[in-house]
Amino acid sequence: MKAALIVRNGSPDKAFEIRDVEHPKPQAHEICIEVEAFGLNYADVMARLGLYQDAPPLPAIVGYEVVGRIHELGTDVKDKEVGQRVVAMTRFGGYAEYAVTDARAVAIIPEDMDAGKATALATQYGTAYYAAEEMSRLHEGDHILIHAAAGGVGTALVQLARWRGCTIFGTAGSDEKLDYLKAQGVHYPINYRKQDFVREIEKVVGDRGLDVVFDSIGGNYIKKGLKLLGAGGRIIGYGAASMTGKNLFGKIGVALGFGFHSPISLLTHSKSIIGVNMLRIADHRPLVIKRCLENVVRLTEEGILNPVVGGTFDFENIADAHALLESRKSMGKIVVYVRK
Ligand SMILES: NC(=O)c1ccc[n+]([C@@H]2O[C@H](COP(=O)([O-])OP(=O)(O)OC[C@H]3O[C@@H](n4cnc5c(N)ncnc54)[C@H](OP(=O)(O)O)[C@@H]3O)[C@@H](O)[C@H]2O)c1
């Protein structure tokens, strides 16, 4: 079968090669999927740049999710059938014609669900659901801040927060993205390149503070987020995009920027810092992945969630897809079609 491999770290045009590789075989608890499309995630960019510690050694097939049909079942898998159309979270291996994953990370989707939208449901909507519904429990009237709100996870968080009746502040890096955020229902879209987001939010919330901050940027954004929280507030840290493009000293600066936070201070002010890493959850709590995935598929079928596809590419143009995601210009999900 064909797969897109990262063969060296660096720019997209030099990093990828499409090669013939061995067809994957499911173990007893796994499922093999004939891939229709796979999605891109920012972690793939970090892996290509050599900035992602969990990425497999090169040459590597990365890819966190696929949409397709069940091709083969492991001997222990009893609740699925060959031929069913599914979305699946993959622990790498998604950039290929066939992908294998744990059966608990596979959810059945309707025949007429758009493949591109469905790819967004696995990692980006799954992460957003876990962060918003399970780790922070949003309530009507909560005031929340979402960084990189126009991105894949960001869009999913916006839609979940709208559903829960929150007042939403969302940051993004261009006016075009602010228009997108307004259309998605963000009450206070903020272009962080032009406005100081802390000051803009303080103007609105005053002493009340925020209830939740969703942070994928890291570094001193965590300190700023904590300062914006009111009593009972929590910050969900799930990324460190600010590491991108930094040399060693820059990375140390970002790491120190996170700050050192005493549990005594958190307890006294009734604030929380919550870390989310879906790979760790997949390793140790696979049923959580199953629950989150099934819930986002259901909410999409009910019309509550509606993933946005911000770019579609053919398999051969994987480098262009990566360049778009790295450019910070993309909105919503970037999808690569393996078969049409
Ligand atoms: N912990 C987990 O399990 C988990 C799971 C999924 C995703 N994530 C993380 O969630 C974040 C979003 O992932 P995604 O796939 O949905 O990507 P995305 O948000 O579609 O794309 C990344 C966006 O981050 C923003 N950004 C802000 N500062 C940046 C910087 N210094 N360098 C690069 N980008 C920057 C850019 O938008 P603006 O400039 O407009 O803000 C960019 O478009 C990533 O940090 C990813 O690693 C974590």
Overview of the molecule:
- By secondary structure, the protein is an alpha/beta fold.
- The chain has two domains: 2-123 and 285-337, Quinone Oxidoreductase, Chain A, domain 1; 139-276, 3-Layer(aba) Sandwich (Rossmann fold).
- Helix content is 36%, strand content 25%.
- It has twelve helices and 15 strands.
- It has helices spanning 12-15, 42-48, 115-135, 152-163, 175-184, 197-205, 220-228, 248-257, 263-269, 278-284, 286-301, 318-326; strands at 2-6, 16-20, 30-39, 65-73, 85-89, 98-102, 106-108, 143-146, 167-172, 188-191, 210-215, 229-237, 272-275, 309-314, 333-337.
- The strands form three sheets. Strands 3, 4, 5, 6, 7, 14 and 15 form a seven-stranded mixed β-sheet that branches. Strands 10-9-8-11-12-13 form a six-stranded parallel β-sheet, with helices on both faces.
- Helix 12 (318-326) links the parallel strand 14 (309-314) and strand 15.
- Helix 3 (115-135) crosses helix 11 and helix 10 (278-284) packs across helix 11.
- The longest helix is centred in the middle third of the chain and has 21 residues, at 115-135.
- The radius of gyration is 20 Å and the shape is globular.
- It starts with a strand and ends with a strand.
- The model has no long low-confidence stretch (mean pLDDT 96).
- Residues 41-43, 123-124, 127, 148, 150-154, 171-173, 177, 216-217, 238-239, 241-242, 244, 276-278, 328, 330 line the site of NADP nicotinamide-adenine-dinucleotide phosphate (NAP).
